[in-house]
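Example 4.3 (complexes with small molecules)
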Amino acid sequence: MKFFIDTANIEEIREINSWGVLSGVTTNPTLISKNGGVFEDVIKEISEIVHGDISAEVISTDLSGMLKEARELAKISNNIVIKIPMIEEGLKAVSILSKEGIRTNVTLVFSVSQALLAANAGATYVSPFMGRLDDIGKSGINLVEDIAFIFKQYGYNTQIIAASIRHINHVEDVAKTGADIATIPYKIFKEMIKHKLTDSGLKRFLEDFKNVKTKEK
Ligand code: E4P
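Answer. The structure with erythose-4-phosphate bound is encoded below.
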């Protein structure tokens, strides 16, 4: 399973990218607004840092507006993927853009039906939102599991990005479903790397090695 980072914060992206674990970045209008800066400039900067797919979201909700924004954003760099909301006009946009060779990430997916529609329209990615489903008492992981099973059964090429990830268990559970990607917030990457036994184990190794003779350099 590949990892994307779910942020528009350049420092966070640089730090996690320096670990060598990132295959892409997802942004959304909320993340962009938290970060500040000029939207197109932020997306360009991100696309130069991470050599993987960078999702940039349209804000129009009508077909011609979405197509116009998508075509402009796609010009920023070859690794830009256009995030399109899961609405009727969005499906039409995905279908047209896919025929133009512009890759898409259908966002705000909360059901198997929506994921199937997106895949049939030619989406490159679908993003089921786990945390937001959990918030309303439904199971985010069950949705990802169902979509992964069905896409595999039928051989869809559309990749699954498990999104709205809130804790480490989400990441580990998603990995068992066969989903292609988890898009993970910075804070959770920092939690993922930690284990108290790693810290105490390293401390002990370093202490013990103080008693070891080494060759003079
Ligand atoms: C994914 O593409 C979305 O940007 C993101 O995962 C939404 O997460 P949230 O529900 O924590 O806002």
